[in-house]
Design goal:
The strands form three sheets. The protein has a four-stranded antiparallel β-sheet. Strand 6 and strand 7 form a beta hairpin. By secondary structure, the protein is of the alpha+beta class. The chain starts with a helix and ends in an 11-residue tail after the last strand. It is elongated, with a radius of gyration of 20 Å. The chain is about 25% helix and about 20% strand. Helix 1 runs parallel beside helix 7 and helix 4 packs across helix 7. The chain binds a DNA duplex (16 and 16 nucleotides) through helix 6.
Length: about 280
DNA sequence: CACGTCACCTGCGTGC
DNA sequence: TGCACGCAGGTGACGT
């Protein structure tokens, strides 16, 4: 479940806790069980357990789609890819089939024990334990909700490239955090066809796209992200999709049936009436 | 540099 | 019921 709003929601929940579970902040790490070795990108299972042991979780944040846990000495980075999820639970619970990494925690105040679970059916997710997170994060493009991401800068970046807009928006080195859902939703709101070439986008269209991206991401965060199928997290944005997974259903603007095409190997949803491709070959 | 293709993985829904 | 197939919120390594 991993686009920017979902990772932001998970980050917030782990940082602030819920009525069910406390915050991760301040917990000390007793050790780690790596149940699927390839889930840990930087260490062998044994070295990961040794390296992470006795560190304390100091802070929790997000960069792009990466979840970032600041520890005493290192930073733990997690990328959930397609099916990853993380949560805190009681160590009394059963270990389930899709648990890939389990980190055992202790509250130094009251001695309470917890389990931090990395669950990932498809095994695409990765965890990095590193003293220098920039080696992994430095290639990422700007944060779409940051001050550093500006309308003017966005327009200029679009015109430095000659690419179809949808794959470009999903390129994490161009902009960090958009995936298939939020890209389709943003392009629909901006009334831009997913195949529009980036250097043919006008100033007005770029402004509209910039505003749409930020509005859609904020709406996703405000609804605690989207939960689809068996990858459920309690978000609600899936009930407010305007194009994503609405193939054949009427566009809310004009009633035209939403179409689905493949762009860059990904299912792509758009309104053929609202999102016209102006042809300039 | 842009783009296509495959690889990594499992599970779910559909249709025969 | 079984089984093949298409589909899935992502990315990285290739080849052209």
């Amino acid at each position: 479940m991993p686009e920017l709003p979902e990772v932001e929601t998970i980050s917030r929940i782990l940082r602030e806790g819920t009525s069910e579970m406390p915050s991760l902040i301040g917990k000390s790490i007793l050790g780690a069980d790596v149940l699927w070795r390839r889930s840990v990108a930087t260490h062998t299972a044994e070295d990961f357990d040794i390296g992470i042991r006795d560190q304390v979780i100091k802070e929790i944040g997000r960069r792009g789609k990466y979840l970032c846990l600041g520890l005493s000495r290192d930073v733990l980075l997690l990328h959930l890819r397609m099916s990853g999820d993380v949560w805190l639970e009681s160590p009394e619970k059963l270990i389930l089939t899709h648990y890939r990494v389990v980190i055992n925690l202790k509250d130094p105040m009251d001695g309470g024990l917890f389990r931090f679970v990395f669950n990932d059916p498809r095994k695409f997710g990765r965890i990095w334990l590193t003293s220098d997170p920039e080696t992994i994060l430095s290639g990422l493009g700007p944060e779409p909700l940051s001050e550093a991401f500006t309308q003017v800068g966005f327009y200029q970046s679009l015109h430095k490239r000659h690419r179809q807009i949808k794959p470009l928006l999903m390129d994490q080195t161009f902009l960090a955090g958009l995936g298939n859902i939020y890209t389709d939703e943003s392009l629909h709101q901006a009334k831009l066809h997913p195949l529009t070439l980036s250097d043919q986008i006008t100033v007005g269209q770029a402004e509209s796209l910039y505003d749409s991206i930020r509005m859609i991401l904020k709406e996703g965060i405000q609804r605690n992200g989207a939960s689809i199928d068996w990858v459920y997290r309690g978000g609600g944005f899936q009930n407010h999709f305007r194009v994503y997974q609405r193939t054949g259903e009427p566009c809310y603007n004009c009633g035209t049936p939403i179409e689905r095409i493949i762009v860059g190997q990904r299912g792509t949803h758009f309104c053929p009436h609202c999102q016209i491709l102006s042809d300039n070959p």
